[in-house]
Structure formats: structure tokens, C-alpha cells
Specification:
Blueprint lengths: L4 E2 L2 E2 L2 E5 L4 H16 L9 E5 L5 H8 L10 H7 L1 E5 L5 H17 L6 E6 L6 H11 L6 E7 L6 H12 L7 E4 L6 H12 L1 H5 L6 E9 L8 H4 L3 H19 L8 H13 L9 E7 L22 E7 L9 E7 L6 E8 L14 E7 L3 E9 L7 E9 H4 L8 H11 L8 H19 L6 E4 L8 H6 L17 H5 L4
Parallel strand pairs: 3-4, 3-6, 4-5, 6-7, 7-8, 9-12, 10-17
Antiparallel strand pairs: 1-2, 9-13, 10-11, 11-12, 13-14, 14-15, 15-16
Helix pairs in contact: 1-13, 4-5, 6-14, 10-11, 10-14, 11-14
Length: 498
């Protein structure tokens, strides 16, 4: 059994703030249940939910019990027994003191001699600093160990982020603070560094001598679905690119760390981001979806301002000005209401040039983050027969086909377990956050001011009509991409490839 410890002491009392909300119901508490049923929580754990909603333990359990999946007989009931609820305000000392009494009661029950407290803030950002202050003043274990976990968004630009983080660090030390970006808990994202540095032929090919361009893509097949008013405060760039896709970019482009310790990894990520200049307006394409295929447009949502310039799609070209990556465009694409749902990294290599081989599709290395985690390389291979011609083929590895004896954990399971153990490598450090906001803030202010306009695209399409032109000007070559399919040969049939 793996136990979360500091100096050999068990972390036994996670408190979930905002326990009545969707994040806690759909992600945080189900993740804790998965850790519980896999025996990855300390045996004597007690989980306390806290929110403004007035309800008892039974009502609290009813909020999230249906989201507890895959448990064996009795496991769900055993988990619910260790979950209690305390109602209270987010801005009143007496409410937090009541929470503290419940925590102390649980610590006494389990015989905890040295308090080990984890506060998970599944809360909207407008109450982050208020709740952090209330916890520090009233629930902080002076003779024990304390950790606070906070969710994005961490501000709306560099200035608001620095203001929020400045208030937070007056109260909580950096080593006590865990800033979650749930993409850092995804199996394929965690695999990036290991795959790069454990395989010399992969790492040797990641440089500006061989790579022409890189696309990091996030696509959702649904729109804002009634959450347009909330989404309009942030937009797709703040929601996806500034955090999730930039984290993927930094892992893909960083240099080899001295060790795989949290600080060595995060040091290298910061070095990369310091070499990424602020995004220029000419390197941007933004869009907003319109009604099509029986689906409403973004502005058909009554909560969205009719003059909104908020992008629901964005394609951005970023440049990493390090010796390894100088001159290679990184195209970060993200959008809602698109033709499919997927997240992937697509590395496209340079043309062979003139000579023996001309007009053949480029080699590519693709890391599919979701759905169906996989890694595949597109190469050119001789077509069987009497003539010397080439056909594009794939060398592929799919997790669900080759890793059937292994279970890929949900991102929140991984991150909560890391927080319990005090492992920071999959969490965002303050200087890393500042550098990321520096890259995006001028662009975001230009969009907010209406200086860059959205191009309409239909619900269910690939995005704005000018998308192909946009990515084409950065060198992306679609030859062989759309028409490729596995050749229908007897070998393919025996391998189940058709």
C-alpha cells in the first residue's frame, strides 16, 4: 500500500472545499474513491466536505454517489462512511472554526499525533484568496503539515495572476501550494518526458534540423452548452491554450533535466518559457461558432452578450527561441463545436528535398493524448509489387490494444495522490505561471479590446475556413493526410487492420 507521507507521518484528513459543486462531484470525490478502492489512500483517512449549501451527510453522499464507478460490492458504502460534510460560509471565521473542530475530531478518532491536512479548493477563483485566508487563520495545523490545492483559472492575465498569487503566498508557502493543471496528470502527458529521454532515436529527432513544424491540438465536438455566460469571461485561449497546451509545449521542448526531481523538471520548463516571445497578432486566427446541423450558435445562448468578441476557437503560432528549436513554429489549436473530440501532438518532419524522392508525404510522429491514447509514426514504405513506388504507412502503438494488463488512471487520481505524497513535479510553480501569462497577455488584451476579430465557423466543422491557409503558412503539409488508410492486404486482414 502506498501512503501519503511527510517525514513518515500519514496524511489522513483531506478537506474538499466547494464539496457541493460540479468539480467535487464529478472529479475530486470520485478520484478519492478510486484511490480508496485501490488502497492508495492512508488506511485511516477521513474525508471532509465543506461548502455553503446546508445539508447533512446523507444528502452530501447523494450528491456524488452516482459518480463513484468501478467499485466492488461494499466499497462504495465503505467509502461513504469516511466522508462527512460541514456546511459553512467562505468568509466567516466562525464557520472555518467549525470546520477545524470537525477536522480535529477526525484526527482524534484516528489517533493522529501530528496533524496532516490537505485542503482541496474545488472553488471558483473569486473566492480563492478569501478561503485561503480563512483556512490559514482558522484551520492551519501549526505543529503539523499543511497543503493547499488550487484549481485554474489563476487570474485572467499576468497582472491579475500576480495579484492572486501574491495574496496567496502571503499566507501559504510555495512548498505547501499545489496549483493543478489536470493535463499534467494525463497518462500520455506524463509519458512525454519518459518517452523522450529513454529513447535516443526519439530525442535525437526533436530539433530544428529535422522538424519542420509542430501542432498541438485540442478539439471538442460540443459547444458551451448553457455555460456561455461563464465561458465568455475567459474564452478558449485562457481556458485551454495558456495552461493545458502550453504545459504540453514546455514538456516537449525542454532540455534534459539533471534529475527527474520536481524542481529540476520545473526549472527546465521555466527556461523554455523564458525563450518564448509574446504572441504577435499576425500569428493568430480566432473564431466563433455559428448555428449549423441543428445546433445553436455561440451567441444564441441568452447568457452571451450579442456583441461578444470572445473566441471559441483559436490557432496560435508560438516560437521557442532556443538553439534546439529556433525557427520551428508551434501551432496551438483549440476549439469548441468542432467535427470531433481529440487532443494530440503532431510533429511533422522536413521534406527529403530534391533527388531520389519527391512529392511524397512527410514523416510525422503523433502522440494522441485522447481519446484512445496512442503513439504512431507515419513513414513512407515501398508498396509491394514490381514497381518502386512508395505508400504512407503507420508504425503504431495503442494503449488499449497493447497495455491490456494495465489501468490508466484518471488525471485527478494521479494529481491528488501526488499532492498527498508532496510530489510537486506535476504541479505548476509560480514563476512558470508568470512566464506563461507573459506570453499570452498582450494577445488577450488585444482580443478583449476588439483589435482582433473572430471569423465565423459552423458548428461541427474543422474551424474557420481560413484554417488551412493559416497552418499552411507555417509549413504544415497535408499531402497524404486525408486520403491515407491502411492498405487492404491479406497481412492487414490477419492483423485486424481493416
Amino acid at each position: 500500500m502506498v501512503e501519503g507521507t511527510i517525514n513518515g507521518s500519514l496524511l489522513a484528513t483531506p478537506a474538499v472545499l466547494g464539496a457541493s459543486g460540479d468539480l467535487a462531484k464529478k472529479k475530486t470525490l470520485p478520484a478519492l474513491f478510486s484511490l480508496f478502492r485501490l488502497s492508495l489512500l492512508p488506511k485511516n483517512s477521513r474525508i471532509i466536505g465543506y461548502a455553503r449549501t446546508k445539508m447533512d451527510d446523507k444528502e452530501f453522499h447523494g450528491k456524488f454517489a452516482d459518480n463513484l464507478k468501478d467499485g466492488k460490492d461494499g466499497e462504495k458504502e465503505e467509502f461513504l462512511k469516511i466522508c462527512n460534510y460541514v456546511p459553512g460560509a467562505y468568509d466567516q471565521d466562525d464557520a472555518f472554526q467549525n470546520l477545524n473542530k470537525e477536522i480535529e475530531k477526525k484526527e482524534k478518532e484516528i489517533g493522529s499525533k501530528e496533524p496532516q491536512r490537505l485542503f482541496y479548493m474545488a472553488l471558483p477563483p473569486n473566492v480563492f484568496t478569501v478561503v485561503a485566508a480563512g483556512l490559514k487563520k482558522n484551520c492551519y495545523a501549526e505543529k503539523g503539515h499543511n497543503r493547499i490545492v488550487i484549481e485554474k483559472p489563476f487570474g485572467k492575465d499576468l497582472e491579475s495572476c500576480q495579484e492572486m498569487m501574491g495574496e496567496l503566498k502571503k499566507l501559504w508557502k510555495e512548498e505547501e501550494t499545489f496549483r493543478i493543471d489536470h493535463y499534467l496528470g494525463k497518462e500520455m502527458v506524463k509519458n512525454i518526458l519518459l518517452m523522450r529521454f529513454a529513447n535516443p532515436f526519439v530525442e535525437a529527432g526533436l530539433n530544428n534540423q529535422l522538424v519542420d513544424n509542430v501542432q498541438i491540438t485540442f478539439k471538442e465536438p460540443f459547444g458551451t452548452e448553457g455555460r456561455g455566460g461563464y465561458f465568455d469571461e475567459f474564452g478558449i485561449i485562457r481556458d485551454i491554450q495558456q495552461n493545458h497546451l502550453t504545459q504540453v509545449l514546455s514538456l516537449l521542448t525542454m532540455e534534459r533535466p539533471a534529475t527527474f526531481s520536481a524542481e529540476n523538471i520545473r526549472d527546465e520548463k521555466v527556461k523554455v518559457l523564458k525563450n518564448v516571445p509574446a504572441i504577435k497578432e499576425e500569428d493568430v486566427l480566432i473564431g466563433q461558432y455559428s448555428a449549423a446541423n441543428g445546433k445553436p450558435g455561440y451567441k444564441d445562448d441568452d447568457t452571451v452578450p450579442k456583441d461578444s468578441n470572445c473566441p471559441t476557437f483559436a490557432a496560435l503560432a508560438l516560437w521557442v527561441n532556443t538553439p534546439r528549436w529556433q525557427g520551428v513554429p508551434f501551432i496551438l489549436k483549440a476549439g469548441k463545436a468542432l467535427d470531433e473530440g481529440k487532443v494530440e501532438i503532431r510533429i511533422q518532419y522536413r521534406d527529403q528535398g530534391k533527388g531520389l524522392f519527391e512529392e511524397i508525404p512527410r514523416n510525422e510522429l503523433v502522440l494522441r493524448i485522447q481519446p484512445e491514447e496512442s503513439i504512431y509514426a507515419k513513414i513512407s514504405n515501398k508498396k509491394p509489387g514490381l514497381e518502386s513506388s512508395l505508400v504512407p504507412v503507420e508504425l503504431d502503438f495503442k494503449y488499449n490494444a497493447r497495455m491490456t494488463d494495465y489501468r490508466s488512471p484518471e488525471a485527478y487520481e494521479t494529481l491528488i495522490l501526488d499532492a498527498l505524497k508532496g510530489e510537486h513535479s506535476s504541479f505548476v510553480r509560480e514563476d512558470e505561471l508568470n512566464e506563461s501569462w507573459r506570453v499570452y497577455t498582450p494577445l488577450l488584451h488585444a482580443i478583449d479590446a476588439g483589435k482582433i476579430k473572430n471569423e465565423k465557423y459552423e458548428y461541427g466543422s474543422r474551424g474557420p475556413q481560413s484554417l488551412n491557409h493559416f497552418i499552411g503558412k507555417y509549413g504544415y503539409d497535408r499531402r497524404g493526410m486525408e486520403e491515407y488508410s491502411y492498405p487492404k492486404t491479406s497481412i492487414a486482414k490477419t492483423q485486424g487492420k481493416i
